[in-house]
Amino acid sequence: MATRLTARDTVLAVLVAIGWGANFAVIRLGVGEMPPLLLASLRFVVVFLIAAPFVPRRGIPWRSLIPIGLAMGVGQFGFLFVAISLGMPSGLAATVLQVQVVFTTLMAVAFLGERLSPKRIVGLAIAVCGIALIGLDIGTSATVVGFVMTIAAALSWATSNVLTRRLGEANGLSLVVWTTAVPPIPLMAASLLFEGPDAVGTALTHPTWGGAFTLAYLALVSTIFGYGVWNTLLGKYPASTVAPFSLLVPPVGLITGWLTFGETPDAPSLIGAGLVIAGIAVANLAFRHRRQRTTQGDTPEPEATPAGVSAQPSA
């Protein structure tokens, strides 16, 4: 297996990260056009209808797909879409969501018996400080409920990561595509219950160009292109070579939120965002260094996977 990306694959990895970073601004556009839970449900419907006929399930059992789909689709994206609709700036959402790395690590240690290196502990501690700083600034740069629901989305993402790890070896693209069969019904039910039949009916019978663009972007760019390319790269290169490109997602999210909606977080939130990105970078680099030592003949203790290595590295 090659350890360095070719120029073409480097460009593809960067394009995926940019697409995922811009995804948060697109979500903000979409939740302004239709109810957020309905939008989340339709996103998965479109992806499944387009991709499932061409991507086999490859024997992944439904007993595994259902809990992963609920955690990822209903939990992660349901909470995230609602959070942005309730005042969480898209750029900060892209950054705060990365606290999933901390949750994933703690859950992997607790439930999978994985261990941490000192460098990874330092990196995660820096990220937690960044999240705390953003949390202290809520009410100015973000709403309290938006911030809390983004944290809930990150916790749901971490849950799906751990469930995926327990599944073991599975085709990444098949897992991504077939988990999209799970969220539409519970998300639609939640939309009818909390957003109301009238709002759902109006959105479905009177579609807008903004809503159509959002669905197309989420399905084609973020999911099919993004995950398709990402999983292809993970199949060609070590995860520790591909994973660091996911660090581009938060800064791209902050920049696109500023350019498209004029989002200008206060200084504490910006400093906190920088700490989150720096902490995840330290954790990733520590993991990458450890992997390099392993290839040279060392046998390290097992440790939790860094950000971006999971099958669902972004919104």
Question: What can you tell me about this protein's structure?
Answer:
With 315 residues, the chain is mostly helical. It has one domain. 73% of the residues lie in helices and 0% in strands. The chain is built from 14 helices and no strands. The chain has helices at 7-31, 36-51, 62-85, 90-96, 100-112, 118-136, 144-167, 172-179, 184-195, 197-205, 209-236, 239-242, 249-261, 267-295. α2 (36-51) packs across α3 (62-85). The longest helix has 29 residues, at 267-295. It starts with 6 loop residues before the first helix and ends in a 20-residue tail after the last helix. Keywords: Membrane, Transmembrane, Transmembrane helix. The chain crosses the membrane at residues 12-31, 37-56, 68-86, 92-112, 121-138, 144-163, 175-194, 209-230, 242-261, 267-287. Pfam families: EamA. It is a multi-pass membrane protein. It comes from Demequina zhanjiangensis.
Instruction: Calculate Rg over CA atoms.
Output: 19 Å
Alpha-carbon distance between the termini? 28 Å
| Percentage of residues in DSSP E strands | under 5%
Number of domains: 1
Chart the SSEs and their pairings.
Layout: H1 7-31, H2 36-51, H3 62-85, H4 90-96, H5 100-112, H6 118-136, H7 144-167, H8 172-179, H9 184-195, H10 197-205, H11 209-236, H12 239-242, H13 249-261, H14 267-295
Helix pairs in contact: 1-4, 1-11, 1-13, 2-3, 2-9, 2-11, 3-7, 4-13, 5-7, 6-14, 8-11, 9-10
Keywords for this entry:
14 helices, mainly alpha, 315 residues, EmrE-like
Summarize the structure.
With 315 residues, the protein is mostly helical. The chain has helices at 7-31, 36-51, 62-85, 90-96, 100-112, 118-136, 144-167, 172-179, 184-195, 197-205, 209-236, 239-242, 249-261, 267-295. It has one domain (7-295).
